[in-house]
């Protein structure tokens, strides 16, 4: 969560205090549910690849895993093999959107903020943004680490289609939402591809097959 700041302008951009507190509590509880599980990661990669194959796309922003997170590295390799352009996020100072840099198998990774790593390659604009989640609901709302990075990034990339991913254990009935939260149109877990009820559908013209 961004620390509350003292000017009216900053307060306007932050979640109301009750929402911020509810997100903090849920974030702490959800962190305890994570574990790096190779079989679970493989299943999430499988369903993500299945979903992405139904879209007419050229490029995908993936993630490079933090400790305890689902590992999308096998998906990066598989999608690269499929001929897609792969980007990975570089994490800027809080308050700014992520940038995505071109990744290729074996490319050097640089250390970044909060233990992240990113490639040195050129900045790219993805058709699809895979969005990591600590918790989610079936409306499509999500909770991340509290930097507001993905909400800012999706607001800055209105033509990119977001696809959330998480373990099914991280599903909640309803995530507390603030004014900047963007509902995702689709969420993938190790069990299923969820078409969310509240998510807008940016990039719909890239649909080739119903899924
Ligand atoms: N793999 C991955 N990459 C990602 C994200 C992510 O969630 N997962 N991000 C999503 O926005 C961005 C990085 N944002 C982050 C923002 C805050 C913290 C953070 O506060 N980390 C805590 C430790 C959290 C924990 O307990 O595990 C810390 O560093 O103290 C981490 C990442 C971009 N890259
Ligand atoms: N587009 C935006 N413009 C201004 N403020 C924003 C924007 N998106 C999010 N914020 C603010 O950033 C703060 C952190 O947001 P939030 O708690 O939703 O992060 P998160 O979604 O859990 O984290 P992340 O997206 O990094 O995974 C909140 O105060 C939120 O209001």
From TrEMBL:
Keywords of this entry: ATP-binding, Ligase, Magnesium, Metal-binding, Nucleotide-binding
Domain of life: Bacteria
Listed EC numbers: 6.3.3.2
Cofactor(s) listed in the protein's UniProt record: Mg(2+)
Pfam families: 5-FTHF_cyc-lig
A molecular function GO annotation: 5-formyltetrahydrofolate cyclo-ligase activity
Coiled coil: none
UniProt-listed Gene3D superfamilies: NagB/RpiA/CoA transferase-like (3.40.50.10420)
Annotated catalysed reactions: (6S)-5-formyl-5,6,7,8-tetrahydrofolate + ATP = (6R)-5,10-methenyltetrahydrofolate + ADP + phosphate
UniProt similarity note: Belongs to the 5-formyltetrahydrofolate cyclo-ligase family.
This protein's name: 5-formyltetrahydrofolate cyclo-ligase
Lineage of source species: Bacteria, Pseudomonadati, Pseudomonadota, Alphaproteobacteria, Acetobacterales
